[in-house]
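Folding Task

Wanted — backbone structure
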Amino acid sequence: MVDVLSMDAIKIQTGMRVLFERWGGDAPLEGIVRTVEPVGFTKVSALGVEEQRVWVVVAITSNVDQWQRLGDGYRVEARFILWDEDDVLQLPASSVFRYRDGWAVFVIDGGRAQRRPVTIGQRNGLSVQILAGVDSGDRVLDHPSDEVDEGVSVRAR
């Protein structure tokens, strides 16, 4: 059983893959979500903050020989695989910004910034899936400042 912040538990569904890391073995253990409990509970964090948490029941699917010495209540770090896809074009989230009714990036073309509207998919806070608007190999500005606008001269640092 893994206790998860309630706002994160909302995204977890039965059947999702789970990786257990830092459990004491050489490689991560694999598992699958069996149940997300329907009732939350309050837990006080190490910083003294009350948090709403939810129990998530996970079945370990790795070979039992790998984890047979793992006991009840042992510390593990669980990473829930919320989404997975091969061959994904992604950019740092800091490259993407709001523009009109959607999203855009600045691409470097001929030493000048060009604003390109993009269609985004999945996001995780650090990176963004790009569905349309930019191609693999395009040079995109990361952390564009307020001074950057369409046609402004830019150079790599």
